[in-house]
Design brief:
This protein has one domain (26-158): Protein Transport Mog1p, Chain A. By secondary structure, it is an alpha+beta fold. 20% of the residues lie in helices and 33% in strands. Strands 1, 2, 3, 4, 5, 6, 7 and 8 form an eight-stranded mixed beta sheet that branches.
Length: 168
């Protein structure tokens, strides 16, 4: 689902390549609430993949327009959140666990690289084609309070005929 050459960070979606005009693949027809529910499940799975005690930030998923598509009938779900392990040492353990687990259960790591920041943060981008989702993970290990930035993003969906997309 993603373009492995991207060097952005969570909060901005990584480039994608399945749909040439705007890069976001089409996921089919679904309601916004159904896709939000699936993105929440994926985020919970990724939280479990970290495998260390920690806290996740509270903001939930959002729904936005699909670039170049009718905003009343097409939408994409994104869920940016932050994972803060209980101890500093656990940040690296969590990233090692994520790197291992994001190669299982339908997930495939598409890119693993160090970004251009002063801290050279480790970035992982993984896709789950069956679930039509992508996740972007960044280890902020060298911060005073280490954490892991995570963004789960869905494909672009069309609402069922006669419905409109809820954007929030």
């Amino acid at each position: 689902m993603t373009d492995s050459g991207s060097t952005d960070s969570p909060g901005r979606e990584p480039g994608t390549s399945d749909e040439p005009s705007h890069g976001i693949p089409f996921g089919g027809t679904a309601t916004t609430s159904d896709v939000v529910s699936e993105v929440k499940k994926a985020s919970s799975q990724i939280y479990d993949f970290a495998g260390v005690p920690g806290e996740a930030s509270q903001p939930g998923p959002g729904v936005k327009e699909c670039e170049g598509k009718d905003p009343d009938t097409h939408f994409q779900v994104y869920h940016p959140w932050n994972f803060k392990p209980k101890s500093k040492a656990d940040n690296d353990v969590a990233m090692a666990n994520l790197k291992e687990k994001l190669s299982t259960d339908g997930w495939t790591i598409k890119s693993s690289y160090r970004d251009n920041s002063a801290n050279k943060n480790l970035n992982l981008i993984a896709d789950n084609d069956a679930r039509k989702m992508s996740v972007w993970v960044v280890a902020y290990s060298k911060r005073a309070t280490p954490s892991i930035g995570i963004q789960v993003t869905s494909a672009c969906y069309q609402v069922p005929e006669g419905q409109t997309a809820d954007h929030f």
